[in-house]
Design brief:
The protein has about 325 residues and is mainly α. Helix content is about 75%, strand content about 0%. The chain starts with a helix and ends with a helix. It is a multi-pass membrane protein.
């Protein structure tokens, strides 16, 4: 009897270890990567380098947190990259028309630019939701089309040229530092992370998002307004794109319709690598944060090791395939 109980305990312990490894595989890989880079480069384990990693992932990180909500809800939004570009262009054009001439106070011009960008993002999110829910169109196709529409509009209103009419103080938003050490961009990222974390894990809206993504019909029958839930997610991810666009334009002191065109893969990769599922209903904000840091460390490591830019694309794409395969296998095991 004791031998049977001992074997049972051993098997139970082994099973718990396997479950823990599956749950914390990404964190373990991140620790291994950090340990390897500590020996590979003397510049890696420095406070300045870690703050640089945080600064580099901040803009795409803000987008990724909003994208996590959308993917958990069972959809995807590829149009956010164009909203990033549109935000910088609109704020720059507003300042060039009213701010530089002194027609309005600077703070009012800035507020008008932000509200205009948020209005465009809100309308874009609602239009995306309408076509996805009304005509049952795949969100990937709808948002891909909307991305091209917005990039076209952005190019037309800027006449195809960068917009550089920004005040000098504007650069402090994304390129400045708090206490001369912490990048402001990283602070914005952490604030957005906390807000969306609270929404997703502490509010009814968060529970509705998980339910709508896991089984939309069951959620509807239980009294959840699935369409409204998807609309809120689609609008919120657009608002995160506006915030990211403000930070990006302030760092380079310019707005351009070509900005953020290659951000889609990195943003979605961080969400999927963090454990979210394209099928919806699965994912956490903590997982997305770990995925962001993991990709940031990988990118930083390849830069320190002088890995070519084209090879970096190969590595990022491979990581995304690996993450999707792992999520699929884990889903089968749970089923």
């Amino acid at each position: 009897m004791e031998k049977i109980m001992t074997r049972t305990n051993i098997k139970s312990g082994q099973r718990n270890i396997r479950i823990s490894l599956n749950q914390y595989l990404l964190e373990l890989l991140l620790l291994v990567l950090i340990a390897v880079m500590a020996f590979a480069s003397p510049y890696f384990l420095t406070p300045g380098n870690f703050l640089n990693i945080l600064r580099n992932i901040s803009m795409q990180g803000i987008l990724a947190f909003g994208m996590t909500m959308v993917i958990i809800c069972g959809e995807i939004d590829l149009s956010v990259s164009s909203t990033v570009a549109m935000s910088g262009v609109m704020i720059g054009l507003c300042w060039g028309r009213w701010g530089s001439s002194g027609v309005m106070p600077g703070w009012l011009v800035f507020l008008i630019g932000i509200l205009s960008a948020c209005a465009v993002g809100t309308v874009t999110g609602l239009v995306n939701t309408y076509f996805v829910t009304k005509f049952k169109m795949p969100s990937m196709i709808v948002t891909l089309a909307m991305m091209n529409v917005l990039y076209g509009i952005c190019a037309m209103i800027s006449n195809g040229f960068p917009v550089v009419t920004f005040p000098g103080w504007y650069s402090t938003i994304g390129a400045g530092f708090t206490m001369e050490v912490i990048p402001n961009a990283a602070i914005f990222m952490l604030i957005v992370f906390l807000l969306i974390y609270i929404i997703m894990h502490k509010t009814k809206l968060g529970r509705d998002v998980y339910a709508s993504g896991g089984n939309a019909e069951a959620a509807r029958l239980s009294g959840i307004n699935v369409i409204r839930t998807k609309a809120v997610c689609m609008v919120l991810v657009q608002i995160t794109a506006v915030i990211s666009g403000i930070i990006l334009s302030s760092q380079v002191m310019a707005g351009n319709f070509t900005f953020a065109k290659d951000w889609g893969m990195t943003v979605i990769s961080s969400v999927i690598i963090g454990g979210a599922s394209f099928n919806g209903g699965i994912g956490t904000m903590k997982g997305t944060m770990v995925g962001l840091v993991f990709l940031g460390v990988v990118s930083n490591a390849m830069t320190l090791l002088n890995v070519g830019e084209y090879a970096q694309y190969v590595v990022r794409g491979s990581l995304m395939i690996f993450a999707v395969v792992m999520n699929t296998l884990q889903g089968r095991k749970q089923a």
